[in-house]
Amino acid sequence: MVGVNGINVVDRKSGSFKREAGGGRREAGSGKREAGSGKRKRQRRTSKKRKSERRKTERRKDREAERANGGDAEARSIVCPHMSSTIGRSGSHDSVRDGVPDERTGSIGSRIRIGALVLIALYAIVRLRNPEYWDPLDDLDLAVHEAGHLVFSALGETATILGGSLFQVIVPLTFVGYFARTRQRYAAAATLSWAGVNLLNVARYIGDARAQELPLLGGENSIHDWWYLLINWDLLKQDFVIARWVHFAGVVAFVSSLLWGAMSLSARSAPDE
Hints:
The chain has 273 residues and is an all-alpha fold. The chain contains eight helices and two strands.
């Protein structure tokens, strides 16, 4: 019985040893699986880092390429001043082939600007020879005139009446100032002719203060702006004198527009020294 019991004890012990050994193998297997999952996680992290680094490198290369392209475009605009200013700013290669500017594009633009100056000159001659000339631009100026009465209405009765003619001149001069400030010299020069048109119209309105022959927007019951202003300033007898000076300012605006436009074109076509 002892021997048997001893054998039984040994058998039970060996069985427990076997079970413990099996549990150890399972723990070792789970440890291997955990180690394998840890490796996979590390590999995923490493691949993510590599992808992010590749993206950063590609972005850096793209930025460097953009800077290089911008520098090349600026260099081309310096070397070839007759190229379009749009090409010089944005680096566009639409009108450039193999680093050579498309001369036809520049010549067409110059011809259009020269033609516009010629039209401005002819338009000025027509306006000066025929004071009663009227076109859609005058309709726009009339709307600006009426808006001026509203703009200056908060400054009193005299300012309200004067504001119509004043606003006619202020609006185009504002555009001239904007274009000149942004270095769009040709646009500023062309817009100055619009101020000349308004000065001629105001001069005609002033000269009509005593005669009051011009048709007014409000009809016969409307008050003539410059009759009211000059009679309050005791200058009604000087209406023709004042009108001539304002007319002279309009002529100066037209001449300045043409000269300024011609100078801007010559500056664009002149090569850098």
